[in-house]
Amino acid sequence: MNLFGVLDINASALTAERERAEVTASNMANAETTRTPGGGPYKKQSVVFETERPDLNSFALALSRFGDLHARGVKVEEVVQDDNPPVRRYEPGHPDADADGYVAYPNINPVEEMVDLMGSAQAYQLNVSAVQATKSMISETFQLLT
Fold first, then answer.
1. Confidence of residue 7 (pLDDT cuts 50, 70, 90)
2. I need a labelling partner for 26 at 20 to 30 A (CA). Which of 16, 35, 89, 118 fits?
3. Alpha helices, DSSP H only, in 30-109?
4. Is 51 a member of any domain?
5. CA-to-CA distance for 136 and 14, rounded, in angstroms?
6. How much is the mean pLDDT over the chain?
7. pLDDT tens track for 43-100
8. Quick check: is 102 in a domain?
9. What is the distance between the alpha carbons of residues 56 and 39, in angstroms, rounded to a whole number?
10. What is the Cα–Cα distance from 21 to 136, expressed in whole angstroms?
């Protein structure tokens, strides 16, 4: 793998972590949303990552080395909704209260979401550091060649 391939892998990781952070922020913003257009409370969402693999039928792959058959980065495979039941709170005066006075709130733990957001931010920063190190190596290589 060349240094430019490393940049491609880092770019895919940065994109995936950005989407993870956006989904987590959406969960935090909707932690108290009791009514959605689809009906019922907001449902927590989670990002599922998957290894990005090269296209095995491409002409470029036929010309590449065997070592290039390995993973090419990471991608968001899907965003899934949490199917856990909502948290019910007794609030008889709330406009979304049922006949018994309970309101269904999203099953979102703000502490878990904050930890997930911090993990995403840290992974993003590590990938930025890797991009900077790779750029430095490319620059030094060009300096050696000139």
1. confident
2. 89
3. 59-63
4. yes
5. 18
6. 88
7. 999 999 998 876 666 665 555 555 555 667 899 999 999 999 999 999 999 999 999 9
8. no
9. 44
10. 27
In a domain? residue 137: yes
Residues 80, 47: Cα–Cα separation, whole Å: 6
CA dist list (Å): 23 to 19, 103, 122: 6, 24, 16
Owning domain of residue 124: 3-31+45-81+108-145
Q: What pLDDT does 52 receive?
A: 81
Cα 98 to Cα 104: distance, rounded to the nearest angstrom: 9
The amino acid occupying position 85 is: P
Cα 71–chain centre separation: 18
pTM as predicted: 0.81
Q: Distance between CA 79 and CA 100 in Å, rounded?
A: 34
> Quick one: residue 101, left, alpha or beta (phi over 0 = left, psi -120 to 50 = alpha)?
left
The verdict on residue 40 lying in a domain is no
Q: 66 CB contacts (<8 Å, ≥6 apart)?
A: none
